[in-house]
From TrEMBL:
Residues 66-196 form the Alcohol dehydrogenase-like N-terminal domain. Belongs to the zinc-containing alcohol dehydrogenase family. Gene3D superfamilies: Medium-chain alcohol dehydrogenases, catalytic domain (3.90.180.10), NAD(P)-binding Rossmann-like Domain (3.40.50.720). Residues 1-38, 431-453 are annotated as: Disordered. Residues 236-303 form the Alcohol dehydrogenase-like C-terminal domain. GO terms for molecular function: oxidoreductase activity; zinc ion binding. This is Related to glutathione-dependent formaldehyde dehydrogenase. Residues 1-35 have a biased composition (Polar residues). Its cofactor is Zn(2+). Keywords: Metal-binding, Oxidoreductase, Zinc. It comes from the Eukaryota.
Length: 453
C-alpha cells in the first residue's frame, strides 16, 4: 500500500475526528471493535502522537463474527506508508490505534462461517479488508470494497472511500493492525491466503502488500516486452517494480533516487540504469540522454514529502498544497508522446503548478493506481514465488524483534543504517530461513548485518 496520505491544509487530527463524529460512521459489513479474550495479553505497537509509537500490552481479540479468523502473527514489518502515520500526516488517527497492514501468521481459531482455512494453516493477510460480496469485490477489485470502511470523512473528501485497511487509522476503517502478536481478520475466507510449506515466511509476508502493489503499478504503466521504463523512487515498491519490468522484458529500466545503496541495489538485482538526482539535477535531461525519444512508461513510486524545489517546499509548509507535483511533472516531460504514467506513490489531496499542458498535448495516459487489489493478483504471484521466478527477499535487509518496533520506526523514518525492508518476528515466528538476514538488535547498535542466517 503506497498511496494513502491526507492532511488537507488547516485540518488537524482533532478536527478530523470531530468532523467524523459529527457526520457519524458510514455503515459497514463488519465491526472494527471486536470482543476480547478474557485474561490473555499480547504485545502490540500503538500510536500515541507525532513520532510517538510504543510497544505496549493489549488484550487478545476473540472471534466476534462468524466470518472472523484469529491468527497468531509469525511475521510483520513496517511499510513506507506507515511513516505517514508516524508523522501524524493521516487524518483520524486515535491514541492507542494498533498499527500494521503487512502481516502473516498461523490460524488459531475460526468462526462458524469459515470454510477456506482451519486451525494451524499458515496464511498471509491482504492489507485490505474486503467483504467478498459487494459489487467491487465481485469484480475482483478488493481494495475498493464498498462495505468495510466506516470513514464518512474519506467519503466526503473523495466521493467514495476505499476498503477498510488493517492498522491504518480510522480514515481507513479503524481496524487493529498486524504489528502485534495476534490479529482478528474479518472475512477470513476472503482476506487470508494459504501458504504452501515450500514458501518461507520471509517471502510470503510480502504478498500482503508490496509484491501485489509493485506488480499492479507495472500493469497500470502498461510495461511490456521491448518498452523502456523510468521509475522514480528506489524504495521497496520501486525496487520490486524494477524487477517486474525486467521480468516483463522491458528494453531498459531507469531508476531515479539519491540514496546510493538503493540505486546500487536496483543495478545489481534488476540490471537498471540509475540516475542519482543529487548529481544529475536535471533528471529529464538525463533520461533523454539514455532514451532520445523519452521513455515509453513512467512509474512514480516516490513520495509527496520529498520536494526538491523551494517553490513546492514553501507551499507545502504554509498549507497552500498538500502534495507536490514535481515528480509527475518530471514524468510528463520525460515520457514519450502517447506514453503512460502510473502513480503508485503518496498523493492525497491538492497540488499546484501541475503541468496539465504536457498531459494533454503529448497525449499521455496518467493513471492513479489506487490501492492495489491484492486478491486479484496474489495467487498468480504466489506461484511465481514458488517457481523461483520472483524472489522478494532481494529487498529484505534486516530482521528485528517486535519489542524493538519503536526504535525501528525511528531508524526507518531517518532512512538510517541501510534499512530497506525488514522482517519483524514475534514469539510465534520460526527461526530465520537460510539465506535471509539474521536477527539484529537496534538497542545494541548492531544494525549493519546484511549478514544472513
Ligand atoms: Zn505497506
Ligand atoms: Zn466488498
Amino acid at each position: 500500500m503506497d498511496n494513502v496520505k491526507t492532511t488537507p491544509p488547516g485540518i488537524t487530527t482533532t478536527v478530523a475526528n470531530q468532523a467524523q463524529s459529527h457526520m457519524g460512521d458510514r455503515p459497514t459489513s463488519t465491526t472494527n471493535t471486536p470482543n476480547m479474550r478474557p485474561d490473555e495479553k499480547q504485545l502490540t505497537l500503538q500510536w500515541f502522537g507525532n513520532k510517538d509509537v510504543r510497544v505496549v500490552e493489549a488484550p487478545v481479540p476473540a472471534i466476534t463474527e462468524p466470518t472472523d479468523v484469529i491468527c497468531k502473527v509469525t511475521g510483520t514489518t513496517v511499510c513506507g506508508s506507515d511513516l505517514h502515520l508516524y508523522r501524524k500526516e493521516i487524518l483520524q488517527l486515535q491514541a492507542g490505534d494498533i498499527l500494521g497492514h503487512e502481516w502473516m501468521g498461523v490460524v488459531d481459531e475460526v468462526g462458524s462461517g469459515i470454510k477456506n482455512v482451519k486451525k494451524g494453516d499458515r496464511v498471509v493477510a491482504s492489507f485490505q479488508i474486503a467483504c467478498g460480496t459487494c459489487k467491487f469485490c465481485k469484480e475482483g477489485l478488493s481494495s475498493m470494497c464498498d462495505t468495510t470502511n466506516s470513514s464518512s470523512l474519506q467519503e466526503k473528501l473523495y466521493g467514495k472511500p476505499f476498503a477498510g485497511l488493517f492498522g491504518y487509522s480510522h480514515f481507513a476503517g479503524g481496524f487493529a493492525g498486524g504489528q502485534a502478536e495476534w490479529v482478528r481478520c474479518p472475512f477470513g475466507d476472503v482476506n487470508l491466503l494459504k501458504i504452501p510449506d515450500s514458501v518461507p515466511d520471509e517471502k510470503a509476508l510480502f504478498l500482503s502488500d508490496i509484491i501485489p502493489t509493485s506488480y499492479h503499478a507495472v500493469q497500470c504503466a502498461e510495461v511490456k516486452e521491448g518498452k523502456s521504463v523510468a521509475i522514480w523512487g528506489a524504495g521497496p515498491i520501486g525496487l520490486l517494480a524494477a524487477k517486474w519490468c525486467q521480468l516483463a522484458g522491458a528494453s531498459r529500466v531507469i531508476v531515479i533516487d539519491h540514496i546510493k545503496e538503493r540505486l546500487d541495489l536496483a543495478k545489481k538485482t534488476s540490471g537498471c540504469d540509475i540516475i542519482n538526482f543529487d548529481k544529475d539535477q536535471d533528471v529529464v535531461a538525463a533520461i533523454y540522454k539514455l532514451e532520445p525519444d523519452g521513455v515509453d512508461c513512467g512509474i512514480d513510486a516516490a513520495a509527496f514529502r520529498y520536494t526538491k524545489g523551494w517553490l513546492h517546499g514553501i507551499q507545502h509548509a504554509v498549507g497552500l498544497e498538500t502534495d507536490s507535483s514535481e515528480i509527475p511533472n518530471e514524468a510528463l516531460r520525460a515520457v514519450r508522446k502517447f506514453g503512460t504514467i502510473s502513480l503508485v506513490a503518496d498523493y492525497a489531496a491538492l497540488t499546484n503548478q501541475f503541468l496539465i499542458g504536457a498531459l494533454m498535448e503529448k497525449g499521455i495516459t496518467l493513471r492513479g493506481t489506487g490501492q492495489a487489489p491484492v486478491q486479484k493478483y496474489w495467487k498468480n504471484l504466489l506461484s511465481k514465488i514458488e517457481s523461483g521466478e520472483f524472489d522478494p527477499t532481494i529487498i529484505l535487509s534486516h530482521r528485528f524483534k517486535i519489542d524493538e518496533f519503536r526504535e525501528l520506526y525511528d531508524a526507518f523514518d531517518k532512512k538510517e543504517m541501510g534499512i530497506i525492508k525488514t522482517f519483524v518476528q514475534t514469539k510465534f515466528s520460526a527461526p530465520p530461513h537460510p539465506g535471509t538476514p539474521a536477527l539484529s538488535s537496534l538497542r545494541e547498535g548492531d544494525v549493519k548485518p546484511s549478514a544472513v542466517a
